[in-house]
Amino acid sequence: MIHETLDLTTEPLLTPELFYGKHEKICDVCVVTFSHKVIEWALQHLDCEKVTEIGCCNGDRPIYLTEWKGKKIAFYMTLVSSPGAATCLEEANCLTGCREFVVFGACGTLKDEMTNGKMIVPTRAYRDEGLSYHYIAAAEYIELKSWEKVAAFLGEQKVPYVTGATWTTDAIYRETAGKAEKMRNEGCIAVEMELAGMQAVCDYHGFSLKAFLFASDCLGSEEWHNELLGSEQEWDTQVKCFLLALDLGIFHGK
């Protein structure tokens, strides 16, 4: 069984360093977005430069460096999905030396009345994906270890937020009504595709991951509702979240 094949006793056959070589550290914090609109906005409004790129047969993913309130911060647009985003994170560490990551993005809400108009701070993620089981021991959930720092930051910024578990799944077209109800009953308030894998990679390597989300669609009890997904309002929200993520990257509160 896949959940029983974790090997932490022998070395990986492949590492990012075998592809990219060793690189000097260029920043302490890296912000991760899923939105090309965020990258377009940043290139137009920030003093930034492309410093390296994550290679991929689908097309390379540039990593940019900017100075934000006196601190150098890298940012890039990651691949969607747990294996895609987690692998990009591991390669971004190799290319930049960064060990602190801030990720934000859209998600589906499972409890619209609870999340409406608020940022979502994930406290743990249900591991309904495959990558995390190659990095840490099998369990139903993984804790998002920096969630209290994210909540403290949003509170200081007076940004409304709610905390709760998320459901990380690989299968966007298999989010059934029955499974969504099961996740709701277990206390999950949102569904996304990356956090369990990204946190597992961070746990394995000793990296820090700070995450916050906003709801763009709703998995209701009987049907799916599109609230913001693909709209101009979503793009505006993505940019606002990017600015929050930059500030969160330099936040040294609780």
Topology:
Elements: H1 16-20, E1 29-33, H2 36-45, E2 48-54, E3 61-68, E4 71-77, H3 82-96, E5 100-109, H4 112-115, E6 119-128, E7 141-143, H5 147-156, E8 161-169, H6 177-185, E9 188-192, H7 195-205, E10 208-219, E11 224-226, H8 232-249
Parallel strand pairs: 1-4, 1-5, 5-10, 6-8, 8-9
Antiparallel strand pairs: 2-3, 3-4, 5-9, 6-7, 10-11
Helix pairs in contact: 3-7
Largest sheet: 11 strands, mixed
What is the number of strand segments? 11
Structural class: alpha/beta
Instruction: State the distance separating the first and last CA atoms.
Output: 41 Å
Low-confidence residue ranges: none
Mean pLDDT: 94
- The ordered string of helix (H) and strand (E) elements is HEHEEEHEHEEHEHEHEEH
Residue share in β-strands = 25-35%
Portion in helices: 25-40%
Please state the overall shape, judged from the principal axes of the Cα atoms: globular
Radius of gyration, taken over Cα atoms and rounded to an integer in Å: 18 Å
How many DSSP H or I helices? 8
Summarize the structure.
Helix content is 32%, strand content 31%.
Explain what this protein looks like in three dimensions.
The chain is an alpha/beta fold and 254 residues long. It is built from eight helices and eleven strands. Strands 1, 2, 3, 4, 5, 6, 7, 8, 9, 10 and 11 form an eleven-stranded mixed sheet that branches.
List keywords for this structure.
single chain; alpha/beta; 11 strands; globular
